[in-house]
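FW: tagging you since you asked about this chain on Friday. Here's the raw sequence from the shared folder, copied in full. Didn't touch anything.
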Amino acid sequence: MKKKGSKQEPSSRFWEVLTACLLCLVVIALNHTKIDENDTWWHIALGKWMVQNHQVYKTEIFSAVGLGRPFLAHEWLSEVLFYFFSSPSGKMLSYFKLFLIASSCTGFGYLLARPYFKGRLTLPLLLGAAFLVTFRAPVRPQIFEIICSSFLLVTLDFWRDHPSWKKLLGLIPVQILWTNLHGSYLLGPVLVFLFAMGLTLCEKVPFLPGDKLKTYSPKEIAQPFICSLILLAVSLINPFHFELLKKSFSVFFLDNSMKEHIREWYSVTRVSKGVWFYVWFAWMTWAWISFFRTFRKVSQLELYTLILATIFPFSGVRYITLSTLLSFPGVLKRSFQLYPSGLNPKKASWILAPLGIFFFWVGYPMTLTAANPPGSGFSFGVVPTDIIQHIKANKIKGVMMNHYHDGAFILHYLYPNVLPVIDSRTDFYGKDLFLEHAEAYQSMGLFNQYVNKYQVNLILVRMIPETEVLRKNLFESSEWTLEKFGLDNMLFRKVDSLHPRKSMEQMTQELQELSRNPGRGSDTVSSETAYCAWVRLFGHCELAPECQPQCEMSDEELSQSLGGISPLCFKFSQVCFRKETACGPCPTLCNFYHRSVDRMNQLGFHYPKTEACF
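HL: got it, structure written out here
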């Protein structure tokens, strides 16, 4: 029997190690998604400014609405790091985030789950936790909340088993970093204080069976109390000192405007339900079931922790991750008590391998039909790259009326020549300025008052049903003229002596005249020039640095480089998607598109293929 056992042991060990490695692979696959958070752009822009100016950003310069107002850059260290790891494609930033979250999840899971690895439910719990943590792990300073809170919870869990000041000392430097990385730093001292309160109640007012299974002396209980005060004190080590503490307290406890208007601050009951919701619901259901099934061993501390983990997402969907991290140690231990064995590492490996491949292929599934796309770098999903590049190349300056979500992209790429009126820094603008911008879209009277107040000379309008009336009014207005008809947006420009009004009827008439004598351009235009022209027109210059010369050309200069194609063709990004225009007014440009579309799609896009006109 010994010989037989000794032969099986290496094989069993191999499958266990393989299971652990495949689990790490699944975590990496879940986080291997493109960057599609609009906030990322302004974080990079602020980080760039701080690095270039060697000082913390304190006065607003990036938006028309907030120009000159004091700005409290409470996430300044995150922004500097984001800028340091940024690149035109965004791939370095993607890998930076992937490393941070994957290593955090792996470390958190390893330190807490190692003693329980062979339990029947340990592996499913680790998978569920990884899925829920990834749900709120975008390329934003919030990823540092995940890392710091994970470290804090592991530390407290270790302290419970072996109370010692040495175990708590590591929280102090982490708290200092947390304070300068993300605004949720108050969670540090608050969670440690609540932990200490839970221990005190277990000792002073025991009423659950587990309250007396592990006892602590008054000196030991005093340690987390004192630690919470130290963490609060070291939180003042930041560029803004008491101002940051005041701001954080206001945002979390007094200001309800973000909870009313920003999706991530909505209650979990208010948002549309995706896969993440059902996983979280199953997670919390099992957490409570395991609590009652092991009732003879649970303490008040576990009860209060579970209540807190259940309540958090109802104050904001962004707390799904914190809810998972808070409840994870207790759920893991109780599940192991119920099912201390049953892991089949060989079967687990055969499940994890295709699961990892699935997530690498599909991305992070938000719903049954939609997922965050897999890959690395910026997704450039709905941002107006074509219009932004048109503004840059033609050296247009001014103030732009824009949709809330586009502001970060605009300030990142167009500052200082063009300022958006507003962007997604809601905590900076406050309720009044946020609502003023939102209400401006409710009527043309309010809209005109708003654009006049902030001296707007550019209007970016999304082509969605909600803006149909606005677009119609702008087309009919004598004060505005169409500057660019983009893929998903329209750009209108204020009429002045240099930019007279031109109606759509006039543009259509000019295109019709052009179709009668379109010309064929120059036969000497190379495939490289044609490709770079379309890179410039679609605004993908960041992904094709070889096209930099064409990307800097104005419409008139681009026209000359393409053999005299009318600059009017460049005003319509979709000019070559329809046969009647592709082979009518602008056939040469559209043949260039036909020759270049495959190469452009290699950059990660899905532009439609068209037939050649000649």
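FW: The longest strand covers residues 480-485.
HL: agreed, and Strands lie at 364-365, 371-372, 398-401, 418-420, 458-462, 480-485, 489-494.
FW: great, closing this out.
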